[in-house]
Amino acid sequence: MRLVKAKNYIHCPVRANLLGGWTDQLLWKEKAAVINFSMGWEGPKCPDDYPLTLDTLGRFRSAINGRGTGLGISSIRAGMMYRQSFPEKSSNDYIKFVLEYEKAILGTEGGWQDQIGGLEPGFKLITTPGDDKNRHKKFKIIRCDNHPVVERIILFDTRERRNAGNIGDLVRDLMQRDRKFQNHLRKVAELAEECFEKDADEVIKACNFSWQGFLGFVPKMKLPKPLPKSKKIVGHMLLGAGGGGFGIVFVDKPESRQEVIEILSKSGFWATVPKVMSGIKLIQTEEK
User: Fold this and answer.
1) Which of 248, 206, 205, 254 is nearest to 227 (CA)?
2) Whose CB among 17, 49, 186, 228 lies 3.0–4.6 Å from 36's, allowing a Cys bridge?
3) CA–CA separation, 94 vs 101, rounded Å?
4) Helices (H), ranges, 34-149
5) What is the CATH number of the domain that holds 147?
6) CA nearest 234: which of 202, 266, 280, 265?
7) 174 within some domain
8) pLDDT tens digits, 157-189
9) Does 128 score more than 50 pLDDT?
10) Residue 132 burial by CB count (10 A; 0-12/13-18/19+): exposed, middle or buried?
């Protein structure tokens, strides 16, 4: 599909996944469910707290350095290109475009949670049916922007980057041949649906179970360096199905976040309080 010249800027968040990652892969032949949210943060390179920008000339700017961040940037960028050129199209249209773009242009086997997570607003549960006709084609999105778990999350950057594609290949292989891994994917999709309307402690418990399970199958997902120890840290996970460089820390209570940010910073991790964002922001420009 040919993209047309745009008449407006787009600012866009990245996405943070909590539960159900990997079930969004097209190779997964069962029902999928993912909890993630559209994420931004305060910073000098983030206009209005949006880390990604696409201008009318197609120039892309990101507040995040490097590839392999785990924030879904390549998929979100493709979705931004499509929405900028065809703002009237539906969510299903741009999701389909990104999946085709990744395969044909980027040569990757990406899923759909990145572009939905960034471009669609809020904290959300995304599900797709298990039947062959609608799986990975039709999506149901439920929002809960004031979910209490958000106030227990810190975003951090390990400052290291890894080839997520290599890790992804390992996971896709397990997805097709390992029954125990398949059972784990079924369980995390089930937990995503069950936990979405539960309290923060239940979501954190499920996220810790999910992450530790993935590490058991793919040890290469582990953090490149350990987090500092603190009783106020009650869990963590790297973002991105490939185990990229950014992650989230869960704290014992909301008022602990600033103290934990300082602890992380002293250990060499960039850290901040993330914000739930309202998806893309379109900035109209005047015709010349």
Assistant:
1) 248
2) 17
3) 10
4) 73-85, 91-101, 113-119
5) 3.30.230.120
6) 202
7) yes
8) 998 888 777 888 899 999 999 999 999 999 999
9) yes
10) exposed
Average pLDDT over residues 144-154: 96
pTM, entire model: 0.92
Determine the structural domain holding residue 158 and report its residue range.
8-284
Residue 126 lies in a domain: yes
3 is a domain residue:
no
- For residue 144, is it left (φ>0), alpha (ψ between -120 and 50) or beta? beta
Of residues 194, 192, 196, the one with CA closest to residue 149: 196
2 pLDDT above the threshold of 60 = no
Give the position of tokens 């084609």: 137
39-69 tens-digit pLDDT: 999 998 999 999 999 998 889 999 998 877 8
Q: What is the structure's pLDDT at 288?
A: 44
The set of residues, in sequence order, having a beta carbon less than 8 Å from that of 169 and lying 6+ positions away, is none
pLDDT for 107 beyond 80: no
d(CA 240, CA 72): 7
Q: Which of 62, 72, 168, 70 shows the shortest CA–CA distance to 114?
A: 72
Q: Which residues of 205-223 are buried (b: 16+ CB within 10 A; e: fewer)?
A: bbbebbbebbbebbeebeb
Q: Rounded to 5 degrees, what are φ and ψ at 9?
A: -75, 155
Q: Is residue 223 part of a domain?
A: yes
Number of domains in the chain: 1
Q: Which two tokens stand for residue 173?
A: 């292989």
Smallest Cα–Cα separation from 248: which of 230, 229, 261? 261
